[in-house]
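Researcher: Structure prediction, please.
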Amino acid sequence: MNGSPVGFINGTANALDRFVVSGGLGTSQNAHIDDISLTSGGLNPALFFDDFESYAEDAGVTTAGPWAFTGGTAAARTARGDSSGTPFGGNNQYLEMDDANTSDSIRMQSPNFTEVAGAVSTFSFDFYEETNGGPNSLIAGYATNGDDLNGAGRRQVVRLSNGTISTVTVGDDNTYDLDTAYTLYMIFNDSGSSFDYEGGTINASEAHVWIEELDSGNFVFVGTSSAENAADTAYRVGFRTFTSNIQSMLVDNVELSLGAVAVPEPTSLALLGLGGLLIARRRR
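Model: Predicted structure follows.
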């Protein structure tokens, strides 16, 4: 994350230092969501957040931070940084997930959160896939209580691979450019009934997936993801590769919050004749 490190309280971010929500307008302070109005009531303080600033540079990311579980070779999940510039801005640290062989499997899971069960929540993270990132995929999303993002443990996931986001019913566009920084937003409705927000209606047990190109602020509706496996009493979020994979991805500003981040209304996109909406953002 670019800017001052965010403080942690009991392993989670002090998000009140990052957002001031008033009547649906979020004012960002050292946040990766800049000048974006929030849904009615706004996003609540983050349940989980990591900007990777608290780790020693070039050290493995472990459970010494807010993560409840990390698996695979520590060298394959490393905090990187560069004062002269990174894919997510200068004077910044980020996570490099580098599954460079078929004998390793990178796994990172947050603690379990009962607050997410039966509610609407947003899982978001910045990502950057390099041209030489590898031929396989990174899985990101929600796992059931104490489980892994694999098989029976998956609740709501997407796959990122070679410029394509899969496991979604495609909306406007499920592709992204390599060597380009984005934020992915997964708005998951576990409430048991449909949920209306600026981007449309999310049916029960489904998620809307959006990406925002960080340089332009262009929002694109990727599509709808359907839940896998049964609902649970708690969920946790994270990332995973597999032993059969060779895949590298750069990640920053991982966050889980209750509520839904606001996105352009579909009618607005049609009137403007755009596949996404250019939103005014403060340059970081």
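Model: The chain has one domain: 49-272.
Researcher: Thanks, that helps.
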